[in-house]
Amino acid sequence: MDRLLRRVYRIVRWLRTRAFAVGVLSIVLAFTIYQTTELTHAVYIRDGESLTLTYTMKEDVHDVLHDEGITVMASDMVHFTGFSPAITEVEIKRSFPITLTVGGKKRQLKIQDMTVKQLLDEERIVLDGNDKINMDLGDMLYEGAHLVVERIDYATRTESRILPYATQQTHSSLLDIGKVRVLVAGEEGEEITTYSQKLKDGEIIFERAVSTQVIKSPVTQEELVGAQEPISPLDFGYKFDTDGAPIGYRQVFTNQKATGYSARDGARTASGRYAVPGHVAVNAEKIPYGTKLYIASEDGSFIYGYAIAADTGIGLMDGRTDIDLFYDTYTESVLNGVRYVNVYVLD
């Protein structure tokens, strides 16, 4: 009987211990389920047109995306405000490629959705009033778009040009044939032309001259060239014989001492005529004012030509010289020196 009671007691004790264990296990399992439910997040992942729902206990959004096999590039933007007790949403804004050209320099960029103005602001690109852009500032950029900013500038430049001098030659029997004597040295001039330019991205696309200014006029070089030609520009129309004497002259003074002189522009002679080549000074008592003359050396190597008695001087009145020939320049009067000529009185 005792043996039976002890056996019953052991069975009861074993049953009580197992029930307790089952009870404890049930409590632990219930707690675990509760904790798991509390720590699990329901996450909607919006990736463009794709929407994914997942459950996770992870706290790092990038780990969640990795577990879902979603790759995010550095240029992409992940919008996530944190896990909430209920449903959490993660939005991925994918970047896309565009081309940006500014001032002729091209770059490839990856951007998210933004307007042209937002991109310019982000890139710190400032437009001035002359620049041109191929899209409106409010336009949304799209994949493959090519935004072009043309830098338009206006400028001026100047260009200097040398003005060559002209050469004026006077044939004169003051010099041997073929010899040249410079009376006035020529000088080059200079002019400045101002150009207006339009530049696109630093390259000139249009240019025109807007003004030209002569800042220094060229000086004509005046030369005497030796030739057997008369110095005086006067012409009375006489014919000449084989000795070079005018046919029909009234009187001739041979072997006359001839000197040369010049005067300022606008000067007048003793007779009131202007002092110009062809008007010569004489002894008015010997040759009256207004007398037409022809003057040349005996051998014909020097020809002053036709002349009018128009002036006088002390040397002529006291006989130190017979005739004084007028020249345009002092140099010519010096080249004349003292010459001996025949003076033909024509009327």
Number of strands: 20
Task: Please work out how many helical segments DSSP would assign.
Answer: 5
Distance N terminus to C terminus?
199 Å
The SSE string, one letter per element, is: HEEHEEEEHEEEEEEEEEEEEHEHE
Strand sequence of the main sheet, in spatial order? 16-18-17-20-15-19
Give the overall shape.
rod-shaped
Helix content bin? 10-25%
Spans of at least 5 consecutive residues with low confidence:
30-37
Return Rg in Å. 58 Å
Strand content: 35-45%
Q: Main β-sheet: number of strands, strand sense, barrel status?
A: 6 strands, mixed
Mean pLDDT: 87
Helix/strand-derived class?
Answer: alpha/beta
Topology record:
Elements (H helix, E strand, L loop, with lengths): L1 H38 L1 E7 L2 E7 L4 H7 L9 E3 L7 E7 L2 E7 L2 E7 L4 H7 L9 E2 L12 E5 L1 E12 L3 E6 L7 E5 L4 E12 L2 E14 L4 E6 L24 E11 L17 E3 L10 E5 L6 E9 L2 H4 L5 E4 L3 H7 L2 E7 L2
Parallel strand pairs: 1-4, 5-8, 10-14, 15-19, 16-18
Antiparallel strand pairs: 1-2, 3-4, 5-6, 7-8, 9-12, 11-14, 12-13, 15-20, 17-18, 17-20
